[in-house]
Each structure stands twice: as structure tokens, then as C-alpha cells.
Amino acid sequence: MTDISLISISVTIIFVIAGFIKKNSVLLFISQASWMWILLAGNTNSIDYEVNSKIYALAEANSGMPYQSIMYWFARQNYDFFSFNAVIATFVLLFFYILIYKKSRNPCFVLSLIFIFPFIDFVIQKRFFIASILGILFLYFFTTKGNLPRKIFAILLFILAVSIHEGIGLFAIFFLYPMFAQSNHKRLFFTILFLSALVFTSVLPQFAAMLPFVGEERAELYFVTLHEKIKYPFLTTSVFTLMHLFFVWLYYRLYRYSSMNGTNYPTGETVLYLNLISLLILPIYYWEPTFFRMFRTLLPLNYIAISNMMPVGQIYKKKLFFQGIRYVAFSSIIFLGYYFVLSAGFDVVAQPIFEDNILFE
Predict the structure, then answer these.
(1) Inter-residue contact 131 to 162 (CB < 8 Å)
(2) Is the dihedral of CA 274, 280, 283, 288 positive or negative?
(3) How far is CA 334 from the centre of its chain?
(4) Of 42-46, 167-171, 286-290, 341-345, which range is least confident?
């Protein structure tokens, strides 16, 4: 590990710890956001960088969907992939920061949790990162009260996100949110939905192949090629299922405790329902654990809701504090396990993010 990566990782750790202490400092939020922007927009190498760069190079030949048209325009103006990604990432992050700052009482707490997990994936999966932020904005506009134009705008955001990365197509399950939220028999409704998801999983590869934004080639990749590469299917499926379930369970514990003590915000219930609906994707972990990225995209909304359960500033209520510590600790464990055990290793997956940056050259 080089001196640059050690310094970069140390700065990140300092910002993470500071965010848990000074949870709503404006100056700290700006500093955290700026550092996150430097690492994300300034990145010049990561495990998927070459793949994304090749996709950008191909865009010069033709334009099509909105995202492809934007790449086409940048390529025709002789911008390289780094410049294109830096500009797009800057705009997307700006909207993301506005959402966090407006909807969280403790925005620094939110950014600290994002730094722990899943920030590294945000940097690596550049195309999915853009799509995931649009997916988060879709959920915000779709689940909050508003008129018909607001709902139409949310649906357009969903369509745009899917056109950028087909993985966000799994967010279609959240169109069930209004029915679930209004149901007087949520357990029965969820049971029916989950049993339906189990049945649907068996025909999912054929269904995905028929979707225009997926197609036979991508369906073959996810449901055949990648599936066959899994050495221990039962173990892999169990690990990602348990991760998903534990995240949801921890959030539920925090939500229930804060509700009993009158420290919950209305968004807490909305995010709880989204977490419960997300459980419908558990059966498809059998095909490929990559689909965990859908729930991973939901985590920033979890973090915002949790931050609103926390007292403002440096004040901590003992029981609520330890409930929050469990969530932070589990996120940290996931970080260690995800990048040191389940992936190619920290030095391959994460270290380039803290080392290869245009500002460090």
C-alpha cells in the first residue's frame, strides 16, 4: 500500500468518525461531500474502469437511449471517458447531496454510513451508480405525497434509470408500495406477494430475455454464465440472503424503538415498507448474488431515515445510541466481509479508489 492510499484512507476514516460525532455540522457536511466527490469524480482506475471506458468508446459510433446520447455527444466533442464521468458524476452527486441535506436532520451521519458501505461500489460501478441515484430519486418522488405530475416525473426517472442500467429494473417491485402501504392486511398481502415471487423466480430468465432493456444476451449472462460460475450456490445464496435480512431486521428494530419513544419521522414508516417490499427479491439470489445491488441502492434511504431517529447534534440517547451502533457495526462488518472475503480482495477492489485519482498525480 502506497503513502498516497494510506493518507487517503486515513482522511476518509477521520471524516467517517467525525460524521458520527458532529452529525449535523454544515461545515463538516460540505467537507465530507467534497471528499466524496474528489474520490468518485476524480477516480482514474478501478476494477471496472476499463469496461466502462470501452462502453464509452463504442458510444461514439451511435446514439440511442438518453444516456447513450449523452455519451455520444461527449465523445463527438473529443472528451475522454474520465472527463465524461467526472461531469456526470458531479451533477448526480449534487442532486444526491441536496436530497440528503434536505431530508436528514443529521446529514453528516448519513454520509459517514455511505462511506462505510456502499461508497466503494459507487466508485467502481460508474454506470450503475448514476442509475442508482436516479432510482433513489424515483423512490423519493413516488413514495411521498403529491399530485399526478409528481408521480409521472417519478416514473420518468425510473425509465431513465433503467435505460442507463438494466439492474434498476428490479425497482419495478416498488410500484407495489401504494397498495402495500394502504393495505389493512399487510402480513397476508406480503405472504401472497412472496409466494408469487418464489414461483416467478423459476421463469425469471425467460421473462428477462423478453424485456427490451435486458434482452437474451444479458439474460444469458446473469442467469446462465454467471450462475454457473458460482462454486457454492447454497452457501452464496444463504450469505447474501442473510445480509439482506439482517439489514432489514436492524432497521425494523431501530424503527420500532424510535416509534415507541416518539423520535421517529414520517419517512421512517415509508422506508420500512420499502425494506419489506425489497424482500421479494430474496429468491433471485439463487441465480446471481449480483442482484444484491438492488437492496444496496436502498441503503442511503435507510441511512436518512435512521439519521432522523437520532437526536440532532452531539446528543445521544443511550438506548437509541446502542441501537444505532448495531447498524453501524453491521455496515462495517459487511464492508470488511464484502471487500476482503467475498470479492477479489481489498488491494484489487478498494485500494485503487484511494490511490488512483487525478488530484493525486
Answers:
(1) yes
(2) negative
(3) 14
(4) 341-345
Is residue 274 a contact partner of residue 297, using CB atoms and an 8 Å limit? no
pTM for the structure as a whole = 0.93
Alpha helices in the chain (DSSP H): 3-21, 26-41, 49-59, 66-76, 81-103, 107-116, 119-124, 126-143, 148-164, 177-182, 186-201, 204-210, 215-220, 226-229, 233-260, 266-278, 292-309, 318-340, 346-349, 351-355
Tens of pLDDT, residues 220-245 = 888 888 788 888 888 888 888 988 99
282-286: long-range pairs with CB below 8 Å, 24+: 282/197, 282/241, 282/244, 282/245, 283/197, 283/198, 283/201, 284/201, 284/204, 285/236, 285/237, 285/240, 285/241, 285/244, 286/201, 286/233, 286/237
- The three cell numbers of residue 282 are 430474496
Closest by Cα among 244, 223, 224, 260 to 330: 244
Does residue 135 surpass a pLDDT of 80? Answer: yes
Query: Which has the closest alpha carbon to 331: 222, 254, 227?
Result: 254
Spatial CA neighbour of 142 closest among 132, 151, 152, 129:
151
Q: Which residues of 93-115 are buried (b: 16+ CB within 10 A; e: fewer)?
A: beebbebbbebbbbbbbbbbbbb
